[in-house]
Design a protein that fits this description.
The chain is mainly α and 136 residues long. The chain has one domain. Helix content is 62%, strand content 4%. It contains 4 helices and 2 strands. It has a two-stranded antiparallel sheet with strand order 1-2. The longest helix has 28 residues. The protein is elongated.
């Protein structure tokens, strides 16, 4: 429940971070604008998934041992350390506190954002801004 609450609280901030991208791309060619905005939204979605994963490994004052025992019923002190890329905090050799969908989703969203950004840069480079290339 806490990870979902953290994501819900950070989503408005993430949306506000993308709004300047929408204002700056108004004068771009439509195809370039779509790719640039898509890259921004995919990057924000990747940040939100990462925040969700981080919220699963840190419970603000509650010990990791207690969480692992209450949620999963196992605890091995050798595996209780957190890693931030890839996100992981293990309760034992086989039990991880981070849900299994976080890493594949991060990879898909980050690769999609990189692809969209490269497409936007390529379109801007090869096609340019439609109105700026015409001189009066």
């Amino acid at each position: 429940m806490l990870p979902v609450l953290v994501v819900l609280l950070t989503t408005p901030v993430a949306v506000l971070a993308v709004l300047p991208l929408h204002r700056r791309t108004r004068c771009w060619a439509p195809a370039t604008r779509i790719w640039a905005r898509s890259a921004g939204w995919l990057a924000i979605a990747a940040i939100e998934v990462y925040v969700y994963g981080l919220a699963n490994i840190s419970y603000f004052g509650i010990s990791v041992r207690d969480i692992c025992i209450s949620r999963y019923g196992v605890w091995d002190g050798r595996y209780g350390h957190a890693r931030y890329w890839p996100i992981a905090r293990r309760c034992s050799e086989l039990v991880d506190m981070v849900p299994g969908f976080v890493h594949p989703t991060l990879v898909v969203l980050l690769s999609g954002a990189a692809t969209a950004a490269l497409m936007a840069a390529g379109m801007a480079f090869f096609h340019g801004r439609s109105h700026s290339s015409v001189r009066s």
